[in-house]
Write a structure and sequence with these properties.
This is Sortase family protein. GO terms for molecular function: hydrolase activity. Keywords: Hydrolase. The protein has helices spanning 2-51, 56-62, 91-96; strands spanning 70-76, 81-87, 98-100, 112-116, 134-139, 142-155, 169-176, 186-194. By secondary structure, the chain is of the alpha+beta class. It has a single domain (1-194), classed as Sortase (Sortase, Chain: A). It has an 8-stranded mixed barrel with strand order 1-2-3-4-7-8-6-5. Helix 3 (91-96) links the parallel strand 2 (81-87) and strand 3 (98-100). The longest helix is centred in the N-terminal third of the chain and has 50 residues, at 2-51.
């Protein structure tokens, strides 16, 4: 009986070690991505300054990012977080930060911008957000603020939230329920619209 107890303790310690290692790995990847994103933003700001702001519209329309590249930041003022935005929504990209769906556009391009992230890493405490809270996206060509106007919960395989909307909308998704153990069955979707300056 003692041997079984010892085996359970050893198994528990191993699980905690593996889980802890994964968390540390995610945090290190996100820190590196945040540095990369801030460098890209700074570079873009310098280029805009040198051009005298004349080519801002061209910069917006021509902007592109490489797969797995950290190119922007997502600030969530209510949660006190600034997160890197990485091109792509595959597992490698989501380990580095908030993923940008490659089929969607970028801020300022007048259509759906889709961002996705894990509820237990970048979007921890996401359940605290409410209608009226804001997201701030810092791009290499400018800053964009969006206000959450609606939210919904959809099944994990529901792709109806992806597509043209006829206007600029920041759609941010994560797994739901927020404190679910294992693979969550649903997705929480927040729709945020540009705030007029």
């Amino acid at each position: 009986m003692k041997r079984i107890g010892i085996l359970f303790i050893i198994a528990g310690v191993i699980c905690i070690g593996v889980f802890g290692n994964q968390i540390i790995g995610h945090e290190q990847s996100q820190k590196q991505s945040l540095i990369q994103a801030e460098e890209r933003i700074k570079q873009g700001a310098n280029e805009q300054g040198e051009a005298g702001g004349e080519d801002t519209e061209k910069s917006i329309e021509a902007f592109d990012a490489d797969q797995d590249e950290a190119f922007a930041t997502l600030e969530i003022p209510k949660l006190g977080k600034t997160l890197p935005i990485v091109e792509g929504t595959d597992p490698d990209s989501l380990q580095k930060g908030v993923g940008h769906l490659s089929n969607s556009v970028f801020p300022g391009q007048g259509e759906q911008i889709l961002l996705s992230g894990h509820r237990d890493t970048v979007f921890r405490d996401f359940g605290e957000l409410e209608i009226g809270d804001t997201f701030v996206v810092q791009m290499p060509y400018g800053e964009y603020t969006y206000e959450i106007r609606e939210t919904e919960i959809v099944p994990e395989d529901d792709t109806s939230v992806i597509g043209e909307m006829g206007e600029e909308v920041l759609v941010v998704t994560t797994c739901y329920p927020f404190h679910f153990v294992g693979s969550a069955p649903d997705r929480f979707v927040a729709y945020a619209y540009p705030v007029s300056e």
